[in-house]
Amino acid sequence: MSASSVWLELEQVEKRLCIVTAEQLGLGLDEVKPENRLIEDLNCDSLDLIELIMETEDEFGITIPDTPKTAVGKLIFTHQPFRIRDLAEFAFLIQGTGAPVRSGWRKMPVGLLPPPESGFTQLGGTINADELDQAALYEKLDAASELPMFRRKTDGMVCVQVPAASVLVGNDDADAHHDEGPCHSVTLSPFLIDIEPVSVTAFLPVPQFDRSAETRHRNVDHSFAR
């Protein structure tokens, strides 16, 4: 917006600036008054204040310098608390300076792309000890995977079988902690591991297991791993 040829009275500037402030901060017009303190009353943070100053420049066709050069400008911007009336007074005094030419960097925020949707494998409901005794805990899946995959029937979680392997553990270095040595080989049996986080729906029934069912559940799981 270019410099306006119409000189506005201070009261007119205050009224229009209240409208700009309300729109910028998402407030009702009845909530914004010239005597409002920008920080204390309107919760205006530093980014809000920058945007408000830029909107003020566009609204009145003026340029508000980053560092006021005049004594009056310095006095207004160092006034505490800083009110809408103070900004309006400065805008009133510098009418005719013309709005700054910007390069168009002020654009609408780019919306986030919607996240990809994927199904979950957990099942709802609960299981009791009798059902656990009558059914195998894991159901083998015909999945196109290089490793065997299973579905745990208690909650529907898909698991993958990690193959057995021998690994070297421990540390013989001079600066190793006393509980890190000696370096030795360990053979791990195959075991199952969940391939995705447990959903809230699947997790909630877990505390409803009775202790005997929970113990049998754990024993079956460990025996499978061995």
Automatic annotation (TrEMBL):
Q: Which residues form the Carrier domain?
A: 11-98
Per the record, the domain of life is: Bacteria
Q: List the Pfam families.
A: PP-binding
Annotated protein name in UniProt: Formylglycine-generating sulfatase enzyme
Give the species this sequence originates from: Rhodopirellula europaea SH398
Lineage at the top is: Bacteria, Pseudomonadati, Planctomycetota, Planctomycetia, Pirellulales
